[in-house]
Design a protein that fits this description.
- Helix 5 packs across helix 7.
- The protein contains 15 helices and 17 strands.
- It has a domain of 332 residues: TIM Barrel (Alpha-Beta Barrel), CATH 3.20.20.140.
- It is an alpha/beta fold.
- The strands form 3 sheets. Strands 1, 2, 3, 4, 5, 15, 16 and 17 form an 8-stranded mixed sheet that branches.
Length: 479
């Protein structure tokens, strides 16, 4: 009992610190950038299938925008949310789904996965051949994780069946600059291009703390310390900023001579170096930056780095000690993507607390749940339920209509897609989950999952296992 009391006292003290100092920390990062609209070198070929309108009636709806509607209706048409409210007209061409006793939410969004590059179940051979990270250098900024993703990974299908309609695949965290992420829809297709979210802004993965130095240090290579990591970051970013400045000076000279800026911009690359070019995009604010960090001091240092080089950190991932610097995160517009538990599973997480997400949320911060390992993407709703329960035990009011944003609206914002997904409002993509009951109950299941208005999963139909899960008949018969 004494141990439980100490834990709750610690939680209350942390909450008081968050709330008392909220708003007192000056912003140090640049404002969040507008996602770059330049042409994608590897464009999406995704096309939403044609689908008939669907009218859901008499449901409990969490719209992702903070509202709960009881005994309400939802109409989706032409891949979009058409209407939401009470006693909607019944279009003659629409399928009607009686949702009495069931709940509806926007499709869930997983901002941190390694699907297709780090599959489970894992054997020693799989571990040796993992494509989650390019490990030849601490700087792999020029790589793109989409060039490694295997769309046949069964994790995509399992996530879809659990209500996930959008997910970001990130490079791993063993290097400082991990490369570009990719945002996808977890649908059964043969190529990454066919599942790639059209026109999604590009993200860049960075990592601080124990992982990079823990990988390279034992190999006798830099970095082998936190200060070494920071020096490598600064050296690479200084070079990238110098090249940006040189290129801009050439563009200005060309403009003064009457040249057309856009026609020549691509010709002013000072080096044919993909790593440097990616970091040039980073310092110009063209990339959404996702940083692997656990400790509060590491996160504060990364915010200092962003201020020095003029880029904006969008999300700290894992962020076990985010509650310690919640006002700093709020002042700088930085989201956190975290777990509801996992405290103490490694040294950097030893000061994590169950209430981490709830306390950052209470301070006005942007909070999300994430999976990281494939199996957790199947349980994001329960991950959020656990985090919210910890907050309620500490005295916070966290109703379902608020908590659902941790899985929908907030990750949509973190991915630069909050004008298209994450909420059930007219005009948004019809990414919809029909739940058998309260989505934050362990007894509920995703009955139906729609992406862009098309039914992609139906629990009433027989499951369709992937080729990987079917196995080989010759092996099944062997004894």
């Amino acid at each position: 009992m004494a141990r439980a009391e100490r834990w709750m006292r610690r939680a209350r003290n942390a909450l008081c610190l968050c709330l008392l100092t909220a708003g007192t920390v000056a912003a140090t990062q640049p404002a969040p950038p507008q996602p770059d609209a330049e042409k994608d070198a590897y464009p999406s070929t995704y096309a939403a299938p044609r689908s008939k309108p669907v009218l859901f009636t008499d449901a409990t709806i969490l719209d992702g925008a903070g509202k709960r509607l009881d005994h309400a209706d939802l109409l989706i048409r032409n891949g979009k949310v058409a209407a939401i409210g009470h006693q909607l007209d019944h279009p003659a061409d629409a399928e009607t789904v009686d949702a009495h006793g069931r709940w509806i939410t926007p499709g869930l969004i997983d901002v941190h996965s390694h699907f297709g590059t780090f599959a489970l179940p894992q054997t020693s051979a799989d571990a040796d051949s993992s494509d989650v990270t390019e490990l030849s250098s601490p700087n792999a900024a020029g790589t793109r994780i989409e060039h490694a993703v295997d769309p046949s990974d069964p994790a995509f299908r399992h996530a879809l069946a659990a209500g996930v309609t959008t997910l970001q695949i990130l490079p791993g965290s063993s290097v400082i600059f991990g490369g570009r992420s990719v945002v996808v829809k977890p649908i059964p297709v043969a190529t990454i291009a066919a599942m790639k979210f059209p026109d999604a802004p590009s993200g860049m993965k960075m990592a601080c703390g124990g992982n990079p130095k823990g990988h390279f240090g034992p190999l006798g290579r830099a970095p082998n310390s936190r200060q070494g990591e920071f020096e490598i970051m600064r050296e690479a970013l200084l070079e990238a900023r110098q090249h940006v400045e040189k290129r801009q000076a050439k563009i200005e000279q060309h403009r003064e001579r009457g040249g057309h800026e856009e026609a020549v911009r691509g010709g002013f690359r000072d080096r044919d170096d993909p790593d440097d070019e990616a970091l040039m995009d980073l310092v110009e604010g063209k990339l959404i930056v996702h940083v692997h960090c656990y400790r509060s001091d590491d996160m504060a240092r990364m915010i200092d780095l962003a201020r020095e080089f003029g880029f904006h950190i969008g999300t700290f991932h894992h962020a076990s000690e985010a509650y310690k610097i919640a006002p700093l995160l709020v002042a700088n517009g930085v989201c956190i993507a975290t777990w509801p538990d996992w405290w103490g599973f490694k040294g950097e997480a030893e000061d994590g607390i169950r209430e981490n997400a709830a306390f950052v949320d209470a301070a006005g911060g942007c909070v999300m749940m994430h999976s990281d390992i494939p199996v957790l993407s199947e349980h994001l709703n329960i991950e959020a339920a656990k985090a919210a329960a910890a907050g309620r035990r500490a005295g916070l009011s966290l109703p379902p209509e608020h908590v659902i944003a941790w899985l929908t609206a907030n990750p949509a914002k973190a991915l630069g897609l909050d004008d298209r997904i994450g909420r059930l409002v007219p005009g948004y993509n019809a990414d919809v989950v029909l739940w058998s009951g309260d989505p934050f109950s362990v007894y509920s299941f995703a009955d139906r999952v729609y992406i862009d208005g098309a039914l992609r999963f139906d629990r009433a139909l027989p499951p369709r296992p992937s080729d990987f899960e079917l196995g080989r008949s010759i092996m099944r018969g062997a004894r």
